[in-house]
């Protein structure tokens, strides 16, 4: 699992994807702690803390991860936050209309357009409800950078007891996307990511790790430097948006 786009989905199974994603997520806390961000959010009297971990070399890629334990959130608010994360950050396992990507476009300001196509993976992961689709995502970056397109296979899994869930996004070649855009005003980037949510009724953890390449004129060292804050700020963006969504 890395950011190199897959040119074929042959041999990709739900069971193996979830196994690989779970193994990767378990490694994150052993990676180098590269920074910490703190944000004001309405759910906390204190700032919410986002820890950033990095792995310089894994599967021939550079990986960065964010981890939230939400210790700053009052106990009374943790269960409500979990429901919001499960409903919106993970999204539906039944409908494209309420899937992860649809909600993600609402709270990640850089995303401005998506195209979704249903897909079915063989060998559904045991012990989970599963849902899969292909997506073509368009990101508007700061001037003078061009729009970036990212093509992915997205696999959503939720445990029936709603205590664990994953969003697994694999970079794929644009040729695998039905009716992919033929426009030329964008640059094709690529990313692979694993998002894991766990909640045992008391402790809540939101973990996301990714490897990526924006391509184009962005030097690799600049992209790496910007990645920490880019993935960290998605946490307060989600928390602020989800509270308004609830209201």
TrEMBL record:
Q: Which domain of life is it from?
A: Eukaryota
Tell me where in this chain the DUF3074 domain is found: 63-242
> Per its UniProt record, what Gene3D superfamilies does this chain match?
3.30.530.20
Which InterPro entries does this chain map to? DUF3074 (IPR024500), START-like_dom_sf (IPR023393)
Species of origin reads: Australozyma saopauloensis
Q: Name one Pfam family in it.
A: DUF3074
Under which name does UniProt file this protein?
DUF3074 domain-containing protein
């Amino acid at each position: 699992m890395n950011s190199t786009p897959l040119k074929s989905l042959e041999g990709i199974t739900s069971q193996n994807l979830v196994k690989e994603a779970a193994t990767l997520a378990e490694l994150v806390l052993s990676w180098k702690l590269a920074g910490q961000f703190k944000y004001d959010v309405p759910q906390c009297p204190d700032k919410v803390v986002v820890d950033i971990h990095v792995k310089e070399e894994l599967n021939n890629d550079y990986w960065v991860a964010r981890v939230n334990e939400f210790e700053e959130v009052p106990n009374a608010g943790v269960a409500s936050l979990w429901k919001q994360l499960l409903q919106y950050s993970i999204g539906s396992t039944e409908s494209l209309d309420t899937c992860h990507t649809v909600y993600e476009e609402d709270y990640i300001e850089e995303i401005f357009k998506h195209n979704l196509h249903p897909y079915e993976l063989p060998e559904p992961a045991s012990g989970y409800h599963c849902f899969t689709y292909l997506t073509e995502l368009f990101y508007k970056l700061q001037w003078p950078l061009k729009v970036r397109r990212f093509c992915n296979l997205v696999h959503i899994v939720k445990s029936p007891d709603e205590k664990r869930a994953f969003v697994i996004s694999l970079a794929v070649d644009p040729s695998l996307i039905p009716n992919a855009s033929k426009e030329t005003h964008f640059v094709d980037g690529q990313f692979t990511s694993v998002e894991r949510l766990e909640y045992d009724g008391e402790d809540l953890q939101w973990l996301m790790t990714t490897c990526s390449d924006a391509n184009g004129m962005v030097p690799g060292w600049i992209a790496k430097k910007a990645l920490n804050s880019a993935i960290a700020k998605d946490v307060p963006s989600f928390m602020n948006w989800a509270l308004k969504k609830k209201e």
